[in-house]
Amino acid sequence: MNNRSVKKVVIAGGGTAGWMAAAALSKLLGKHLEIVLVESDEIATVGVGEATIPTLLYFHSLLKINEAEFLKATHGIYKLGINFENWRAKGEDYLHAFGVTGQDCWAAGFQHFWLKGREQGIATEFGDYCLEKVCATENKFAHLPQNGLNYAYHIDATRYGQFLRSISEEHGVYRIEGKINKVNLNQSSGFIESLRLQNGQLIEGDLFIDCTGQRALLIEGALHTGFEDWSHWLPCDSAIALQTTSVKAPVPYTRSIAHDWGWQWQIPLQHRVGNGVVYSSKFVSDEEALATLKNNIEGDILTEPRVIKFRTGTRRKHWNKNCVAVGLSSGFIEPLESTSIHFIQQSIVRLLRMFPQQGIEQADVDEFNAQTMFDLESTRDFIILHYAVHNREDSAFWQHCRRMQVPEPLAQRIRLFKQSGRVFRKNNELFDDSWMQVMIGQGLIPDSYHPIVDNMSDDELAKFLAHIKHNINGMANQLPEHSAFIKQFCASID
Q1: Identified catalytic residue from 27, 72, 79, 133
Q2: Contact at 8 Å (CB) between 334 and 236?
Q3: Low-confidence ranges of the chain (pLDDT < 50)
Q4: Contact at 8 Å (CB) between 150 and 492?
Q5: What is the per-residue pLDDT for 80?
Q6: CA angle 434-439-445, nearest 5°?
Q7: How many angstroms separate the Cα of 397 from the Cα of each of 216, 276, 282?
Q8: DSSP one-letter string for 430-449
Q9: Is the CB of residue 238 less than 8 Å from the CB of residue 278?
Q10: CA 469, CA 457: separation in Å to the nearest integer?
């Protein structure tokens, strides 16, 4: 495609995506690159991606980020999962935890043993056999040996960007203030040659990273890459966000509360709470959604409500010519399972692994795009699962979701689990145990279990289930309160 070696990288846009890219490139490849980041103080970032998943720990380990310093800087706390309230049915909830539930055997997952125990009346709720779920509901947390407790974080996204900016600038990233006025393309190759700012400044580069959010100024505005719309599967198209004061100790999980037309998030930090609603404008007005949000929050409101409109879907290519889209510019799957920062991280790490030092090759571009699309489509299906499988018939929105046709790979997963209790992870996809937790949590109970379970006598099965719970409860009882651990380990001082 282009044998020109990559010596200068231009990152268009800041925010979480831009500064994550800048920090990783500068710290891991910075000795060989000139890195410039262009952003404008006049353009607000979305700044509401405050919940993460455990993969962020890998990104931080690559950058050798000190966890305590990071949490102090971002007013962060620990997150062990997401509590889904009113999703299966009104008044019912379950917690999707980050851990592994129970103990598998070579032929069958733990859910098969649980299913027989449930039939016999000796098994309790599925989540009771997951350490992370028990710790979350009991407000317990500590670091355990050998990563014995899987966790992520709640963070202030704006402060996270500032934290990463300081790392980036320490490693030579040069920030340029200004608005992008024009993207200049090479007439023969179609590659991006430079960005022209409103003040006339010209910024040339070899590789461009588009972190301009939903505007997608480079990947779409200049390169016309195309967009694949997923709104027929993910009907929510709007969000409203606001922040409130804390009125109680922060819990180590995100709350996701289903309403008649969408859902509400609640994300506690050390000193405040992030709140918002995600909804379909076809089923509720902005005004009604905001009123519902205000009626279902605690504490004083700190910020003006922000209405955010979005379209779920993906760019047809995430690397096009010499431009890589990262973050919202590459597409958007709604924030139900806190995957937005994960996809930023995945794109950055994937680019680092395939970095075109000697020039951009089509084979690298194609592989990057294929891997990215697989990640997005499998996660998309996991998100759709929450809307498609449930017992709610109480509103037009939930009736619509339950009756919509889902992608065939998801339909097959649902059929397989319902008929046999089987779930298979494909090609190192993001979610594993989570599929069982959510399908069972949403009310999908298999019709049968694997016959290997019957090798256990009824007494052996009862002891097996009881032993798992005993060990989990014993471990949870030894851990300190989550808020006490935060205070000792990483309390923010500002």
Answers
A1: 79
A2: yes
A3: none
A4: no
A5: 98
A6: 135
A7: 30, 18, 9
A8: S-SHHHHHHHHHTT---S--
A9: yes
A10: 19
Element spanning 364, H or E = helix 362-388
Residue type, 126: F
**Tokens 């990057």 map to which residue?**
368
Rounded CA-CA distance 432/437 in Å is 9
Q: Which of 476, 490, 481, 386 is nearest to 99 (CA)?
A: 476
Dihedral sign computed on CA atoms, order 468, 473, 479, 481: positive
463 is catalytic: no
The token pair at 308 is: 């955010």
Q: How far apart are CA 212 and CA 39, in angstroms?
A: 9
Residues 389-446 pLDDT 10s: 999 999 999 999 999 999 999 999 999 999 999 999 888 788 889 999 999 999 999 9
For residue 419, give the amino acid letter.
Q
Cα separation of 278 and 274, whole Å? 13
Q: Work out whether the CA dihedral 380, 25, 165, 76 comes out positive or negative.
A: positive
Q: Which of 13, 14, 30 has its CA nearest to residue 355?
A: 30
Q: Name the one residue in this structure whose structure tokens are 């590459």.
A: 330
Element spanning 314, H or E: strand 313-315
DSSP β-bridge partners for residue 314: 228, 331
Return the C-alpha torsion angle 371, 330, 328, 347, nearest 10: 40
Is the pTM for the entire model greater than 0.85? Answer: yes
Q: Which of 402, 436, 403, 437 is nearest to 420 (CA)?
A: 436
- Return phi, psi of residue 319, to 5°: -125, 115
d(CA 486, CA 494): 15
Sign of CA dihedral 167, 169, 174, 179: positive
- In 155-253, which ranges are E strands? 174-177, 180-185, 192-197, 202-204, 207-210, 227-229, 238-245
Residue 191 · residue 23 · CB < 8 Å: no
